[in-house]
Amino acid sequence: MDSEALCNCSQKKEGELRTMNNFRSYQLALNFYRAVIAEINKLPSHLRDQMQRASSSICLNLAEGWGKQTNKDRKKFFQIAFGSLRECQSILDMHPLEQNIHSQADHLAASIYKLLRNAP
To answer: What φ, ψ does residue 11 adopt, rounded to 5°?
Structure first.
């Protein structure tokens, strides 16, 4: 799958808006965040807040990057999102939650990695 299919970052016809619904990586991040929040009470208190902030950071940085006009700016926010995802994966390594959450994290990592790898 190419980066355009994941991000749909190509220029649209004049008057056509890019929506977050068309941004696959963002949708995966949102699903991951919701799954984490549903299970967050199973984490020790010292990691609960960290996991909530890191998982929300993925969504927020993908969204902010999606709104940037240049590829350089977009890539910077996608890199931050990827770092936040790695933080979540580290927490999951320390204190595993439902297997589905681990699978979602891996799928999201592949999606964001493709965005970064294919960015100009």
So the answer is: -65, 135
Q: What whole-number distance in Å separates Cα of residue 18 and Cα of residue 12?
A: 7
CATH of 3-8+21-117, one of 2.60.120.260, 3.40.630.30, 1.10.10.10, 1.20.1440.60: 1.20.1440.60
**Cα–Cα distance, 99 to 107 (Å, whole number):** 12
In 3D space, the residue among 118, 87, 94 whose CA is nearest the CA of residue 25 turns out to be: 118
Q: Distance between CA 52 and CA 40 in Å, rounded?
A: 8
Whether the per-residue pLDDT at 15 is higher than 50: the answer is no
Does pTM surpass 0.85? no
